[in-house]
């Protein structure tokens, strides 16, 4: 019996909560994993898992073994990384997760240069507007613009502040007038991002610190920031965006900012990755690159 492979199989089953999920993640059959765990139990002379049709539960011996198993496997991984780090260039496949808008608008500015610098590295992009499970979907690093990070088991490295801006197309303002106060927004439709709990709500803070909450009528809702951006440029109404989404449209005049004396809660661009005692060279290379790139403000007027 290959005890190391059996230990890896056992840990994978426990970490993923069952044989089916672990088998899918590892790309092997349920039967193979089950046989490895049974052989491991036979080799150790004790039962590690209680199996029922509905759930999988560690025995007392299984919990003890799992704790040592994790330590041993991580130490072996750390040993292999430490032996190769000094001479190893980033290699293999880097799986990078980004939101759709960020992928379309930002990656073209820096990803070609990053890839050019690391010729032995392949990058696989996963673009999605939902919060993904990095471990379940095997993502190495995720770049997220957000105001909250719900998963505390991940490492989050702050890269940049993303301010929000209220905008409209000149054609819309010519037809409907330009609001100059928060209350004036009530006469205008908001193009709302439907993934938000309250797509029509705006929170505004004035230059002297006063807060104002506005519930605007909604003309169009969409689950895609890029679709809302196109609608705003097309003159359908007023919209609120992370500045990086409309930075170019503001610069060339397709959109104009509104209520310049009022601000909205900003968000943060993070690089998020699973906790590990030793970060893989390919992950470290990306983290160092984006940290340096976004150290300089990129989206401010």
UniProtKB/TrEMBL annotation:
The entry assigns this protein to a family as follows: Belongs to the LysR transcriptional regulatory family.
Which PANTHER family has this protein been placed in? HTH-TYPE TRANSCRIPTIONAL ACTIVATOR TTDR-RELATED, HTH-TYPE TRANSCRIPTIONAL REGULATOR
Identify the species of origin: Pseudomonas oryziphila
What are the residue boundaries of the HTH lysR-type domain, all occurrences included?
1-59
Keywords from UniProt, A to Z, are: DNA-binding, Transcription, Transcription regulation
Q: Which PROSITE patterns match?
A: HTH_LYSR
Against InterPro entries, the record matches this protein to:
LysR-type_TF_proteobact-type (IPR058163), LysR_HTH_N (IPR000847), LysR_subst-bd (IPR005119), WH-like_DNA-bd_sf (IPR036388), WH_DNA-bd_sf (IPR036390)
Q: What is this protein called?
A: LysR family transcriptional regulator
The parts of the chain that form a coiled coil are none
Q: What Gene3D superfamilies does its record include? A: 3.40.190.290, Winged helix-like DNA-binding domain superfamily/Winged helix DNA-binding domain
Top-rank taxon, per record: Bacteria
């Amino acid at each position: 019996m290959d005890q190391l492979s059996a230990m890896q199989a056992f840990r994978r089953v426990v970490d993923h909560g069952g044989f089916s999920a672990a088998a899918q993640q590892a790309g092997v059959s349920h039967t193979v994993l089950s046989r490895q765990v049974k052989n491991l139990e036979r080799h150790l002379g004790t039962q590690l898992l209680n199996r029922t049709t509905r759930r999988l539960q560690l025995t007392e011996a299984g919990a003890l073994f799992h704790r040592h198993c994790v330590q041993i496997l991580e130490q072996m991984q750390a040993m292999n990384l430490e032996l190769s780090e000094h001479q190893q260039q980033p290699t293999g496949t880097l799986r990078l997760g980004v939101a759709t808008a960020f992928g379309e608008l930002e990656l073209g500015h820096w990803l070609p240069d990053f890839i050019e610098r690391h010729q032995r590295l392949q990058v696989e992009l996963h673009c999605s507007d939902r919060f993904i499970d990095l471990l379940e979907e095997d993502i190495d690093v995720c770049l997220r613009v957000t105001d909250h990070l719900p998963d505390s088991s991940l490492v989050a490295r702050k890269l940049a502040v993303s301010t929000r801006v209220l905008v409209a197309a000149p054609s819309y303002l010519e037809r409907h007038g330009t609001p100059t106060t928060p209350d004036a927004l009530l006469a205008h439709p908001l193009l709302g991002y439907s993934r938000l709990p309250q797509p029509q709500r705006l929170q505004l803070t004035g230059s002297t610190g006063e807060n104002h909450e506005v519930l605007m009528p909604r003309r169009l809702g969409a689950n895609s920031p890029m679709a809302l951006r196109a609608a705003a440029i097309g003159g359908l109404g007023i919209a609120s965006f992370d500045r990086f989404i409309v930075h170019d449209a503001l610069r060339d005049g397709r959109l104009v900012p509104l209520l310049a004396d009022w601000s909205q809660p900003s968000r943060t661009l993070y690089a998020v990755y699973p906790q590990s005692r030793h970060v893989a060279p390919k992950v470290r290379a990306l983290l160092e690159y984006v940290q340096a790139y976004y150290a300089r403000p990129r989206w401010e007027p």
